[in-house]
Design brief:
alpha+beta; 463 residues; 30% strand; four-stranded antiparallel sheet; rod-shaped
């Protein structure tokens, strides 16, 4: 066998060894879904495309009146009867509830008896004074002082009794006024929102006995967390969507942001379609003035989102997907989708029209609205676990801590442990020089050729 053929055979064997090593490395790393700690968050296509261009935050809101009437119960009185229920519509003057007047009437009767006794005391005292004055007129000089003292004492007693009589009459008037006002009426037209029998709301907070929401002009009260409150301002136009039918919308603008009163939620607070605000985030209220209230009901829950003109976009037929979810290499376009076993795969899609203004592609085939897809981040690989709960993603796993400096990730080629490309259009040896591409290379990095004109001779390689 010639030295040239021996050199070629050695080169082929070396190339096979390198290829086997690289293949073993990747088969080991990628088999069974890759690293078990790697997990990727996936969403339904329909959910992604309902996120208002994927950038608009949504906030929860509820329709409320411009005015609220709170009625507090007299803590010293007992409610006899309630004439309305939660949800009832009332007019100005409608009787809401009444107090028990039985004890008041008994107190009035008792006070009147006491007044009769006081009146009798005054009458008797006046009679005694008259009799003493007659006796004093005919009494000797040395007894005049005694008569005068008795008369003055009786006169003082009469003044005290007259004072007691006035006080008792005041008590009777007070009791009578309470009886006359035993029926509590509404001061405005509205809807009964709350009735708190024990003076506390369902959450245990001190609350008015009854709350009435005024009918007429409505507004929407929204809630936003502290991490997002800086993204809105008074005057910001908004779109409000029904939570039951998102095609039903209203418009308005933010009229007030209340940053002085805060609410603290110890649980995770999520913005609708806007991400998580984190644990123990303070929340603030903001208010929306509506352009029209047609079709709205008090207490109705809505989505609130800043108006960036998304409401003016005409609805397109078919399935459309944002172009940044689609990977377009030299081959067929594809998306990273979850298979039936919740493992990520490259799903080929057929593209139709491209909307440059919205950055969307028409998906003619290969994907449905119910399919789960992932954002095509660097380093994704087929077989990685796909999850729909973002909290299950471990961002300390190898997938999210790659040291590769190649921006193309692992879609274009294969990489060794140092992150350098190990096999793409050719193969490479340990010092980074190309090992096999269109020709074969020896340990010095010089090329084997059929003509032996690559620097070193065949005999030199063998020997």
């Amino acid at each position: 066998m010639s030295k040239k053929k021996v050199g070629i055979i050695i080169g082929v064997i070396a190339a096979a060894v390198v290829a086997a090593g690289v293949g073993f490395y990747f088969l080991k790393g990628r088999s069974n879904g890759g690293n078990s700690a790697d997990k990727v968050y996936v969403e339904k296509v329909s959910a992604i495309m309902n996120q208002s261009a994927g950038i608009n935050n949504r906030y929860s809101g509820v329709v409320e009146p411009q005015e609220t009437l709170e009625i507090n119960k007299d803590s010293e009185r007992k409610v006899k009867e309630v004439y309305v229920s939660v949800g009832d519509e009332v007019e100005e003057g409608t009787v809401l509830f009444s107090y028990d007047t039985e004890d008041l009437q008994m107190q009035i009767d008792q006070a009147k008896l006491e007044m009769e006794g006081i009146a009798n005391d005054i009458s008797n005292s006046n009679a005694q004074i008259a009799e003493l004055q007659k006796e004093k007129a005919s009494a000797p000089e040395d007894q005049q002082f005694e008569y005068t003292t008795q008369i003055q004492t009786l006169q003082t007693s009469i003044k005290q009794s007259e004072y007691n009589k006035k006080s008792k009459q005041a008590e009777i008037d007070k009791y009578q006024k309470s009886i006359d006002n035993s029926e509590v009426t509404s001061k405005m037209a509205g809807v009964v929102k709350e009735i708190n029998e024990n003076g506390v709301d369902p959450n245990g907070n001190t609350a008015a006995y009854m709350k009435i929401l005024a009918t007429g002009e409505y507004r929407v009260k929204g809630t936003i967390d502290e991490t997002s409150v800086g993204t809105i301002s008074e005057g910001t136009p908004v779109i409000l969507r029904s939570r039951l039918d998102e095609t039903q919308t209203w418009t308005g603008s933010i009229s007030k942001i209340d940053t002085e009163s805060t609410q603290t939620d110890s649980n995770s607070s999520y913005m609708y379609d806007g991400g998580s605000s984190g644990d123990s985030a303070s929340k603030y209220s903001f208010y929306v003035t509506l352009d029209s209230t047609d079709g709205l009901m008090l207490g109705q829950h809505l989505y609130i989102e800043p108006d960036y003109g998304q409401g003016e976009v005409e609805e397109k037929e078919g399935l459309w997907l944002y172009d940044y979810y689609i990977v377009q290499d030299d081959g067929d376009p594809y998306v990273w989708a979850a298979d039936k076993k919740n493992r990520l795969e490259k799903r080929k899609v057929e593209l139709g029209e491209h909307d440059e203004n919205l950055g969307e592609y028409e998906i003619k085939s290969g994907l449905s609205e119910d399919d789960l897809i992932a954002f095509p981040m660097q380093g994704l690989y087929e077989g990685v676990a796909a999850v729909t709960n973002m909290e299950e993603v471990d961002y300390s796993s190898p997938l999210y801590n790659q040291e590769s400096t190649d921006d193309s990730g692992m879609d274009e080629g294969m990489h060794d442990e140092a992150g350098t490309e190990s096999m793409d259009e050719g193969m490479y040896n340990t010092d980074g020089t190309e090992y096999m591409d269109e020709g074969m290379y020896n340990e010095a990095g010089t090329e084997f050729t059929d003509g032996g004109e690559s620097g070193a001779t065949d005999s030199e390689v063998v020997e």
